[in-house]
Amino acid sequence: MAGIGLFRMFDPKVRRHLISDEGEVVIDEVRQHWVVFTVPMLEVLLAAALLVAMVTTPIGGQPVLLAICLVLLTHAFWNFLTHHRDRFVVTNMRVMRIRGVFSQTVATTPIARVLDITLQKPIIGRMLGYGHFIFESAAQDQGFREIKWVSRPDDRDLTIQRVIQRTGLRASASVDVVQSDEDSDDDGTGPIGMDSAQEVTTTTAPAHHSRPAPTSAPASKSIFNSDRGNWTDD
């Protein structure tokens, strides 16, 4: 119980960094593989052996052994906290890396920006069940370039790929919905989808009334007057 309480006391508390009001949830919280605690455990065992050796050591040499024990225990505890508080978190919106003991660093990037993931599994890693992730994306400048000591690396890789795939499908579906909404907002003013009635106004030219043709004057007759020697009109 004391060990569980110690773990909870130094837990990085990942969920306080979630955007809960937007529906963000943790898909996977990756702790480092137990192999990283091998060195701290060996240091603790060595310190315990030195404490036992102090019983048979002359009084003059005991302060030296005690100082070595304190250094080993302090270094082991620091390494334990460093590895324990280093978490890689995958949510339905982004990936995060939280690390640090006294000063904490939180690096985040949207899941859509993760372009390529390389999984490296050395021989010992394949035997013990750990691997290293190498991210090729814009996130590499934010602390995501290399994530080491990932336990169950194959399962974690599949989890990340599924989240990336689902995020891409949701993004494409959102684009389709936006395009369909824009098409349905056609008000009929353009040449496509004209639904409003069109009023066609025809203009009738005024009728041109024909004027009566002018009547020609009756033709006059000219008669030659032989007495006067000239022509007279009839």
Number of structurally distinct domains? 1
Return residue spans where pLDDT drops below 50 for at least 5 consecutive residues.
188-210
- What is the number of E strands? 9
Structural class: alpha+beta
The overall pLDDT, averaged over residues, is: 77
In terms of DSSP E residues, the strand content is: 15-25%
Strand order across the largest sheet: 1-2-3-4
Radius of gyration: 48 Å
Give the SSE string.
HEHHEEEEHEEHEE
Shape: elongated
Helix % is 25-40%
Annotation field: number of helices: 5
Transmembrane segments: 34-55, 61-81
Biased composition (Polar residues): 217-234
Biased composition (Acidic residues): 179-188
Domain YdbS-like PH: 87-151
What characteristics describe this protein?
alpha+beta, 21% strand, PH domain-containing protein, 234 residues, transmembrane helix, membrane, three-stranded antiparallel beta sheet, YdbS-like_PH
Structure commentary:
By secondary structure, this protein is of the alpha+beta class. It has one domain. Helices cover 36% and strands 21% of the residues. The protein has a four-stranded antiparallel β-sheet. The chain has a three-stranded antiparallel β-sheet with strand order 5-6-7. Strand 2 and strand 3 form a beta hairpin. Helix 2 packs antiparallel against helix 3. The longest helix is centred in the last third of the chain and has 32 residues. The chain is elongated and about 75 Å long.
